[in-house]
Every structure is written in C-alpha cells, then in structure tokens.
Fold:
Amino acid sequence: MKTKPQTSHICMALALVLASGAQAEPRTTAATLLDRLQIEDLVTDYYAQLGGEKTASFGDEYLDDSEMVLGTRVIKGKAAIKAMYAGLKPADPGKARPRMNVMVSNPRITVTGNTAHGEFIYTGVVVAAPDKAPELHEQGREIDEFVKVKGEWKIKRREIINDANAGFSAAPPAKPAG
Structure:
C-alpha cells in the first residue's frame, strides 16, 4: 500500500510538533529554583501566622498597591489588607480562640524574571481544644501574582477561592446538577 505524499508530510509535521512539545521549557529550572523556594516560604510563613499569633509585620508580605480578592470582595492596598486582618475578631470574645492550622499544598509556581504566578491549595483545620479531634474548617485555592522588589518577593495580587464558600459571599455556590 502506497502512502500519498501529502499524508507522509502531515505525519512528519505532526511528529515534529509532538517531539517539540516534549521539549517544552520546564516550569522550574536551575535559574528559577531559588525564587520558587523563596515564594513557597513566603506563602507558608504567611499561612502559619493565620493559625497562631500574628507578628507586628503581618501583612508586610504585600506591596503597597496590592490587591486581595475574596469572592466578590476586593481589598485594595497593603494598609487595607492589614486592617482587614486586624479587624478579625472571635465570635465570642470571652472564649479562647480555637487554633486553626493552615496547610498549603500543590504549589504551581512559574517565575519569569522579577514576576511570578503561583497557584496553591490551602486547607484550614480547626483544633477547638486539646482533647477534641481536629475538624476541617475550609479548603480552597489561591491564585497569586508576585513581584520581586530589592531581592525580596512580595504579593501583588492574591485571589482566595474558598471551595466551600464559607463566609465569602451571602449565597452558597450552586450545586452541580445530577
């Protein structure tokens, strides 16, 4: 059986495209590895403070003109973000606040020069008392934009997507059909 010349050219072109796709630039390279690790540390340290005592510098991870998106709510500027966190109070001020540990996983970070894009999954676990089992409080994703300023990574934009929609808007998310 003879192959038409057009078909063989198409097959060769397809093979070249597939082969070149396999040679795509990896997300992490030797040149971006340190930046990627610094960004992971920034995000991990940030979330660690949400579960415990916040340091006086909490919120300095943001640029002055940064933006945080929580569902339909947009907080603009480092000062406003810091004020939002400072304003979070326990439901019952007379009771000790339960401990919440926040785990960050599945980092997908792409560094391009002095900017980076990152996506993470976060899971908040509440420990109400030492004699109680931990409970899943929330889980979601975040999509971040970072900028390196004077050798230090800062958050330019953070979008938090709470997959359970706990407290991010008045209406719960629509349930899938079926």
